[in-house]
Amino acid sequence: MHGSFTADDEHARASEPEGCGGEAALHITFFKDFAAQRYTTENFTLPQLQERILQRSARKKGDLPWLKLAQFGNKRTAKGSLRHDGNVMQVSGVELDYDDEKIAFDDAVKAVKAMGISALIYTSPSHSPDAPRWRIVAPTSKPMQPDMRAKLVARADGFMKATLGVAKVAAGESFTLSQAYYFGYVMNKPGLDHRAEVIRGDFIDQRDDLAQYEATGAKTGSAERATTGDTTTNTQNDGRAHGFDAILATMGDGDGLEGFNGPLTRAASSYISVYFEFLDEKKLKKILREAIDKAPKKNTRERVESIKRYKGDKYLTDIIASGIKKFTETLPVTLEHFVADMETHTYIYLPTRKPWPAPSVNARIRPVALLDADGRPMLDSKKKPKRVSASAWLDKNRPIEAVTWAPGEPMIIKDRLVAHGGWFEHARASMLNLYRPPTITLGDPNDVKPWLDHLRKVYPNDADHIIRWFAYIVQHPETKPNHALFFGGGQGVGKDTLLEPLKRAVGPWNFVEVSPQTIIKSAFNDYLKSKVLRVSECRDLGDFDRFAFYEMTKTIIAAPPDVHRVNEKHRPEYYIPNINGVIITSNYLTNGIYLAPDDRRHYVAWTDCTEGDFTGDYFVKLWQW
Question: How many CB atoms lie within 10 A of CB 553?
């Protein structure tokens, strides 16, 4: 765990906004400089952040600090930086940066007010009234998974574009997950116009109506500009040849020709931008070598040597790699991010395992250009690339027949399906595994003493069993411990703190919290898609519900049955392996859950510790560890 949790109580509740966005405290990470080798964190309301921004100054921009609405871990780059995408654990909001120097700050404020979200908009250190630059900071209602950030930025960007009537608002780095931003002003700057305004409204993640602007606001760049490009067009407004074949036609020695290096580099990039989904480097190299052989050449020794280099594998590999890098840097989503769910006829976005409708897929992915068996473009009667919609291509090339949720299995499970009786073989079937494995970076196994000490302090007689149960859950995600843990004790003794390392180890998305009432009364049971299912605050269920809860959790706590039938909104029922590990917590010794006298499904651990046993900054230090 890391010191970015700075609340005074064990739950760090201050990091989770409550109430309206303007008054909620949001988690902010501050970096001293670009190197980002250290950071501090604060839980600020927007007015408090506004005050911090307005008061901060430096003699030059590079001496100003950086801010980011995110929680970072302790994973460093090779240069020691903590600010990188792989180290972002959660986001507490989004930032949108504007640097085109055309839209006035006051106009931007009006547009954000029209959006109706809670936000802080402030001028960047490079801003001036004649060359406006500003940033929007919009908190979320709760900490969000990192993959939600780009979606929310796109919604805000799309709304701003539509409201302001412009083609571009958000700078490209606004979509970079770990991008942090300068704040404050430069002293003695000519035309100083340092401003920050708080706008009250709804949390941006609770405004589902803004989803209509998401496609409009999605990150654009060379990937999207290539959607209208083809391999046969001759020139654009810059007077240069464009399109794969047209660029290659400029290659060679002689009047009007451009040599070899430039055309080869541009032709490779053009090919990649149109046919990236089906890129076969060997075939592309073959095509480029054939074009080199056909091009006019000087009859000199130097040219003979350079042609050997241009046709060499290293040179061609380098220019293809450069083209791929340029293209993918601006690519928001690709065909490989999706599979076609034939049961619901939707398209599942693999990073989140969430379904998209066909129009959304086609809005984000350009029509797919087709290649023949040799990797050459297939052209229509007008000599333009033949294309099909992204959704149609997915239907034909990446279909799945069913879904499940199965830790330990690959993302795409081949030749097997799961139903009421369990697993069975079915040739040529493809089933999507909705399970997402944890992404935690392993730490030092010898540096666990603070947590172990806390565990033995709270449950001294049960610590060894709890450790083994936790270890089994993490080391064997595909199996079930077949009994539940019950953690009991008064408030404020650190039960939640004990569970936090387990939550991180299995992946926060695989650690699900549910109330007893939901288990008893709800028709939907998607909470079963959990490696750890925590049932919290079991109390005052009443005699009937106490017995009902006991009976209904039998099949969740222990197997058989070997599978669960999952009923969730917007999807037909499906089956998943029964591998849950169940943890039940309660602050109450009486009026809690019912246990039969001969029960063998629950391991009960009770603590006599009280909140007074944990004084001072005990929990602050433990969470900083």
Answer: 22
Q: Which whole-number Å values give the CA distances from 210 to 18, 230, 356, 483, 510, in the listed order?
A: 21, 33, 16, 44, 28
Q: Are 506 and 473 in contact (CB under 8 A)?
A: yes
pLDDT band at 226 (very low <50, low <70, confident <90, very high): very low
Alpha helices in 132-232 (DSSP H): 149-164, 214-217, 222-225
Query: Could you tell me the sign of the dihedral formed by the alpha carbons of 95, 99, 103, 104, in that order?
Result: positive
Whether residue 105 contacts residue 113, with contact meaning beta carbons closer than 8 Å, is answered with no
What does the buried/exposed string (b/e) look like for 41-74 if buried means 16 or more CB atoms within 10 Å of the residue's CB?
bbbbbbeebbebbeebbeeeeeebbbbbbbbbbe
Residue 325's Cβ-count burial label (10 Å; 0-12, 13-18, 19+) is exposed
pLDDT higher than threshold 60 for residue 447: yes
CB distance 441 to 75 below 8 Å: yes
Average pLDDT rounded to a whole number, residues 566-577: 92
pLDDT at 15 over 70: no
CB 236 within 8 A of CB 381: no
The residues pairing with 512 across neighbouring beta strands, listed in sequence order, are 533
pTM over 0.85: no
Q: Which of 567, 566, 568, 592 is nearest to 579 (CA)?
A: 566
Q: What are 165's two structure tokens?
A: 């009537």
Q: What share of residues in the chain are helix, strand, coil (percent, to 5)?
A: 35, 20, 40
Residue 239: left if φ>0, alpha if ψ -120 to 50, beta else—which one? left
Nearest 5°: CA angle at 97, between 92 and 103?
Answer: 135
Q: What is the mean pLDDT of residues 419-430?
A: 93
Residue pLDDT, tens place only, 51-108: 999 999 988 888 999 999 999 999 999 888 999 999 999 999 999 999 988 888 988 9
Under 8 Å between Cβ of 585 and 487: yes
Q: Which pLDDT does position 231 carry in this prediction? A: 40
More confident residue, 166 or 138: 138
Maximum pairwise Cα distance, the chain: 97
Q: How far apart are CA 314 and CA 254, in angstroms?
A: 26
Beta strands 338-341 and 346-349, pairing class: antiparallel
Rounded CA-CA distance 248/290 in Å is 11
What pLDDT, on the 0 to 100 scale, is given for residue 539?
Answer: 58
How far is Cα 119 from Cα 152, in angstroms, rounded to an integer? 13
26 close to 142: Cβ distance less than 8 angstroms: no
- Using only C-alpha atoms, what is the Rg of the chain? 29
| Domains of the chain with CATH codes | 13-218 (no CATH), 224-328 (no CATH), 449-624 (3.40.50)
Distance of alpha carbon 201 from alpha carbon 207, whole angstroms? 10
Give the integer Cα–Cα distance in Å for 501 and 470: 9
Q: What is the mean pLDDT of the chain?
A: 86
Q: Tell me what pLDDT residue 372 has.
A: 86
Task: Provide the 10 A C-beta neighbour count for residue 509.
Answer: 18
